């Protein structure tokens, strides 16, 4: 993992921000560099839609207005990091437990610019345990369904998401069909969000300051 590449990626994403924009903002240490760079342009943008309480606090600290997605409507741009990224710009996300709001904003945005360091690039998704946000009472049910599918579910004990839910990290999956697995898991009652971004992958991936 390279903090320098994360900073480069966060700063490079600024070139996608247009005057007057409302920018969708993800969560994590790479996005933190983006927010710091966005602060320099704060008089040129209308505000941001935030994917987590963590990013909301950061945005407010640097003086960027945080807006409600219900009020803004669709966005032109979403900028977020990832835990893994394959050659088709399909992602694993949710290492920071913000996957649900991240997926909502990605879906609402015309362009998703993903910012990563080179350690996140993989041939096959799944070495990073797949985060799944679940309604608390469904934790065991979802765990059993994952075991049936050959995964090893590990409860992220002590973590409560911004939505009041829990996270299961699935180890041991080599994900050959990310869109198929995403669709399959989405049918299990109690799963709120699967941290696979395959049905709606990134549009642009910046690895450091380089477009993938
Ligand atoms: C949070 C995420 C993050 O984008 C992901 O965990 C990458 O974080 P970082 O930039 O700190 O490596 O999905 O839920």
UniProtKB/TrEMBL annotation:
Under the heading SUPFAM superfamilies, the entry gives: D-ribose-5-phosphate isomerase (RpiA), lid domain (SSF75445), NagB/RpiA/CoA transferase-like (SSF100950)
Q: Provide the E.C. number(s) assigned to this enzyme.
A: 5.3.1.6
The residues responsible for catalysis, as annotated, are: 102
Q: Assembly and partners?
A: Homodimer.
> Which ranges does the record mark as transmembrane?
none
Biological role stated in the UniProt entry: Catalyzes the reversible conversion of ribose-5-phosphate to ribulose 5-phosphate.
Originating organism: Dyella japonica
Which pathway, metabolic or otherwise, does it act in? Carbohydrate degradation; pentose phosphate pathway; D-ribose 5-phosphate from D-ribulose 5-phosphate (non-oxidative stage): step 1/1
Single annotated GO MF: ribose-5-phosphate isomerase activity
Which residues bind substrate per the record?
A: 27-30, 80-83, 93-96, 120
- Return the similarity comment: Belongs to the ribose 5-phosphate isomerase family.
Instruction: Indicate what this protein is called per its UniProt record.
Output: Ribose-5-phosphate isomerase A
User: Could you tell me which PANTHER family the record lists for this protein?
Assistant: RIBOSE-5-PHOSPHATE ISOMERASE (PTHR11934)
Write down the InterPro entries for this protein, in alphabetical order: NagB/RpiA_transferase-like, Ribose5P_isomerase_typA_subgr, Ribose5P_isomerase_type_A
What broad class of enzyme is this? isomerase
Keyword annotations of the record: Isomerase
Does the keyword section mention Ligase? Answer: no
Q: Which domain of life is it from?
A: Bacteria
Reactions catalysed according to its record: aldehydo-D-ribose 5-phosphate = D-ribulose 5-phosphate
């Amino acid at each position: 993992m390279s903090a320098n590449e994360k900073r480069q990626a966060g700063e490079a994403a600024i070139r996608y921000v247009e005057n007057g924009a409302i920018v969708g903002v993800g969560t994590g240490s790479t996005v933190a560099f983006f927010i710091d760079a966005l602060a320099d342009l704060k008089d040129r943008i209308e505000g941001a839609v935030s994917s987590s309480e963590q990013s909301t606090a950061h945005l407010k600290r640097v003086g960027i207005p945080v807006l409600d997605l219900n009020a803004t409507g669709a966005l032109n741009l979403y900028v977020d990091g990832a835990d893994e990224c394959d050659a088709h710009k399909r992602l694993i996300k949710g290492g920071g437990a913000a996957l649900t709001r991240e997926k909502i904003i990605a879906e609402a945005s015309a362009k998703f610019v993903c910012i990563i360091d080179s350690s996140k690039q993989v041939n096959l998704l799944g070495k990073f345990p797949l985060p799944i946000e679940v309604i608390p009472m469904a934790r065991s049910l979802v765990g059993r369904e994952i075991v049936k599918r050959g995964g090893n579910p590990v409860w992220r004990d002590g973590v409560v998401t911004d939505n009041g839910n829990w996270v299961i990290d699935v180890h041991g999956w080599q994900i050959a069909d990310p869109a198929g697995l995403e669709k399959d898991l989405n049918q299990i009652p109690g799963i709120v969000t699967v941290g696979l971004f395959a049905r709606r992958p990134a549009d642009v991936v910046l690895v450091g300051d380089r477009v993938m």
